[in-house]
């Protein structure tokens, strides 16, 4: 590499280096934008999962859960339980089951939104390599 640069003046070499560094940083910025866009898409996916979990836990299941509580209460009453106690036990059972399902959806959405998933790993590694190359050239 030193043979190629021996006949060139220092000003030309420094100008070439400045152009190379400028082009390199423009490419790094493009990479960072692309990677950030990808991370935003992943984040939106996590938010959608959270929204789906919330809608299922609150909206669509409301009427169905009421029917299940009534069905369980009727079963307990037919088994000889007091009606008030059977309603309370049926509501508790349904609450626990639905709570577990909602927890699974919320945990999945939150794990997608973790800060560690939003790191720009490729851009950081590329910038580190570029900085090493620039140090070698200087």
Which stretches are low in confidence, meaning pLDDT under 50 for 5 or more residues running?
none
Number of domain units: 1
H/E element string?
A: HHHH
What radius of gyration results from the CA coordinates?
Answer: 31 Å
Proportion in β-strands: under 5%
Q: Structural class of the secondary elements?
A: mainly alpha
**Relative helix content:** over 70%
Number of strands: 0
Describe the model.
The chain is mainly α and 138 residues long. It has one domain (2-137). It has four helices and no strands. The protein has helices at 2-5, 10-78, 83-112, 121-137. α2 runs antiparallel to α3 and α2 (10-78) runs antiparallel to α4 (121-137). The radius of gyration is 31 Å and the shape is rod-shaped. The two termini are 14 Å apart.
How are the elements arranged and paired?
Elements: H1 2-5, H2 10-78, H3 83-112, H4 121-137
Task: Describe the structure using short key phrases.
single chain; 138 residues; mainly alpha; 87% helix
């Amino acid at each position: 590499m030193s043979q190629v640069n021996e006949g060139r003046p220092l000003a030309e070499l420094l100008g070439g280096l400045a152009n190379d560094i400028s082009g390199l940083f423009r490419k790094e910025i493009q990479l960072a934008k692309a990677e950030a866009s990808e991370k935003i898409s992943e984040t939106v996916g996590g938010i959608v999962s959270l929204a789906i979990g919330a809608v299922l836990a609150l909206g669509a299941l409301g009427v169905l859960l009421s029917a299940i509580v009534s069905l369980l209460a009727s079963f307990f009453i037919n088994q000889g339980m007091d009606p008030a106690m059977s309603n309370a036990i049926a509501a508790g059972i349904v609450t626990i089951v639905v709570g577990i399902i909602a927890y699974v959806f919320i945990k999945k959405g939150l794990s997608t939104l973790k800060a560690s998933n939003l790191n720009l790993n490729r851009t950081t590694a590329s910038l580190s390599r570029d900085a090493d190359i620039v140090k070698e050239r200087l």
